[in-house]
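Model: Ready when you are.
Researcher: Fold this.
Model:
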Amino acid sequence: MTHFNRLNLAVLAADGYNGLINVENYIHGALDLKLLSLVKLRASQINGCAFCLHMHYEEALKAGDTPARLNLLPAWEESRMFTEKERAALLWTESLTNIATDRAEDETYAEVKAHFTDKEMADLTLAVAMINAWNRIAISMRFLHANDKPAA
């Protein structure tokens, strides 16, 4: 699925890369996969990671999401197709993904926290941190998804 166009971090930094995989496996067991897919897609949209967008769109469909909802994800604040809990997760995703300007303000935290237990909030925060890490790895190493074919 992955074509490494620069360095193969899975080989060159195997221990560190496998550590990221272990955190990813933890997150997949801790959060609802439909919610997790939305979080990963939204962060990947913001960061412009084509590889991750391909991967997490497919994961979202497998988790039971619909193309109509996924197409409206960039406009989640305006759309009524997302639950309050999903909206809170997306707000936290955007806040942490844009941390340099957004700063994860107390008001944002309180708004999001109203929909999650402490454990869920911790897991959500790890999930957002992980997808941002993966986006940076995939973009910098020029990962190419198998479905990313040249236009006809």
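Researcher: Now this one.
Model:
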Amino acid sequence: MRFLMMHRLDESAPEAWNPGPEFIEQMGAKIQEWTEKGVLITAEGVLPSQTGSLVRKHKGAKITVTDGPFTEAKEVIGGFALINAADRAEAVQLASEYAAMFGEVEVEVRQVAEFDDLPPEAQPGA
């Protein structure tokens, strides 16, 4: 099964966006370890929200775009990893290893919907 791990950081904390050499080294080692084990599919950090935009579709198909920073959000996504795990328990255990490298962080773990997870009527040819 595939799982998405998204880590959230306090956007107002400058140290959250300026990782030191020790963190970079730890993250590099974890990436190498998980790659060798076949756990890691991909992982990336993202820049603070002032570099992003939020696109919303409203009723009636109206689209609005709001450029960052997003003042209503204290914690924002700082990065993500897409992993392979046997089940949610293993994914949570891996997320705990991932979180241990950060100072203060929240890591959300979500199972990725696979084609076979779709109800039969939603699959092509049904």
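Researcher: Key takeaway?
Model: The first strand starts at residue 2 and ends at 10.
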